Amino acid sequence: KNLSLRYLLNGASDDSLSLMHTQFMEADNMTDRLSALNGLVNDPREEARPLSEQALDKFYNDWQHEPLVLNQWFQTQAACVLPGGLERVKVLMEHPAFDFHNPNKVRSLIGVFCNSNLINFHDEAGEGYRFLADNVIALDKLNPQIASRQLTPLTKWRRYDLTRQALMREELARVLAEPGLSRDTYEIASKSL
Fold first, then answer.
1. What residues contact 22, with CB distance under 8 A and at least 6 apart?
2. How many structural domains is the chain composed of?
3. pLDDT for position 39
4. Cβ contact 33:59 at 8 Å
């Protein structure tokens, strides 16, 4: 059922938005509700935006007292491939439910954006790389293990075109130059260069 709805959305069927919205509103299980939410959030049509915002608000209001479920809410938005992904993630970092000191929240927002949202993370300007390096530097002071794991997307720089390679290496070098860098983060960054 969820795959069929995704095919309809990808084909921009006239009925797909209302079907996806109906599934979200009437779902009796988390799998169907999250599938519909993901579909709505990633639908590029302008008419999808109000339905997407309504669904995100409803999901948050329904589950705001369940931190583990809210991680899914953050993940859905962090993985959204529509333009402006980095800006959305930065706004979500200011949300009251986000806690930079909580490893699960960091992974569900920053980690998902950098590991799963390849379109926005690997934007040609390198903003995603700067964003990740900035957050790794800040995280390293709080939780070196999480910081070093979050650095992983930059360590794969050899897989990309020369422009992106240079930008990724520049951010790795910036992380390495940070005074007082933990052994964990230093090891990951230095071995990748």
1. none
2. 2
3. 93
4. yes
Shared domain for 92 and 4, answered yes or no, is: no
Which contacts of 159-166 are long-range, i.e. CB under 8 A and separated by 24 or more positions?
Answer: 160/122, 163/124, 164/122, 164/124, 164/126
Looking up residue 170, the CATH number of its domain turns out to be 1.25.50.10
Same domain flag for 74 and 54: no
Which domain covers residue 21, as residue numbers? 1-63
CA dihedral 65, 43, 90, 120 (to 10 degrees): 140
Distance CA(137)–CA(148), nearest Å, equals 9
pTM for the predicted model, two decimal places: 0.91
Residues of the chain under the 50 pLDDT cut: none
Q: 48 and 129 in one domain?
A: no
The whole-angstrom separation of Cα 69 and Cα 85 is: 21
| Per-residue tokens: 60 | 């948050």
